[in-house]
């Protein structure tokens, strides 16, 4: 069973999508705005996102950019904007597929199934191996030299965002928005507390982190040694 996040300001279409997906045994979250979509994505970690571009407030393109900071979940754009420019903009932002309205439900569901198949193949190899840690993104497990680390859901979410952006700075604001939601973008104390817990559980020497680094005043970075096998 996969979790699908549907984002559209058309309430009738949203209900129709939800009913069809649940009938095929998917877990479904429904969001009428981009802001609500980001909250649900952070809370429930969708396996695939169906996204309208013409949203009130936060636009569909902005949602794609925000999601791509921390997740590789496939995004299927569903939009009445069927011009070539709009398709290129969505795909360049990080969308995986584009379905123009009006559409056939059978075609859309087939595209969702195809996106999920690609994700399963991708996540089977999403593993980082270092001298001290093995991080398996598909199994949602971290093994240390002392055994399996017991991470809370929030700690795991932070670790996953950083690992999927290995070697790149992730700003504090980005982490807060993706893990806790847009309304928490200034709560930097949340990050300090949880990152301290993560280091105690995962770093060989928590006071001298080897993997999870702080860029003062900017954000955090997962920086594995050069010999590590990267997540793919």
Characterise the protein shown here.
The chain has 232 residues and is an alpha/beta fold. The chain folds into 2 domains: 3-123, 3-Layer(aba) Sandwich (Rossmann fold); 127-222, Winged helix-like DNA-binding domain superfamily/Winged helix DNA-binding domain (Arc Repressor Mutant, subunit A, Orthogonal Bundle), CATH 1.10.10. Helices cover 42% and strands 20% of the residues. The chain is built from 8 helices and 12 strands. The protein has helices spanning 11-23, 34-44, 60-68, 84-93, 105-123, 153-164, 172-179, 188-202, and strands at 3-7, 27-31, 48-51, 75-79, 97-100, 127-129, 133-136, 141-144, 147-148, 170-171, 212-215, 219-222. The strands form 3 sheets. It has a 5-stranded parallel β-sheet, sandwiched between helices. The radius of gyration is 18 Å and the shape is elongated.
Count the DSSP helices. Answer: 8
Structural class by helix and strand composition: alpha/beta
| CATH homologous superfamily annotation of the largest domain | Response regulator
CATH topology title of the largest domain:
Rossmann fold
User: What is the number of beta strands?
Assistant: 12
Approximately how much helix is present in the residues? 40-55%
Query: Which stretches are poorly predicted, pLDDT < 50 over at least 5 residues?
Result: 121-125
State the CATH architecture of the largest domain.
3-Layer(aba) Sandwich
Largest sheet: 5 strands, parallel
The radius of gyration computed from the alpha-carbon positions, rounded to a whole number of angstroms, is: 18 Å
The ordered H/E elements are: EHEHEHEHEHEEEEHEHHEE
Q: Which percent range describes the beta-strand content?
A: 15-25%
CATH class (first level) name of the largest domain: Alpha Beta
Mean pLDDT: 86
Distance between the termini: 23 Å
Question: Globular, elongated, flat, extended or rod-shaped: what is the shape?
Answer: elongated
The spatial strand order of the largest sheet comes to: 2-1-3-4-5
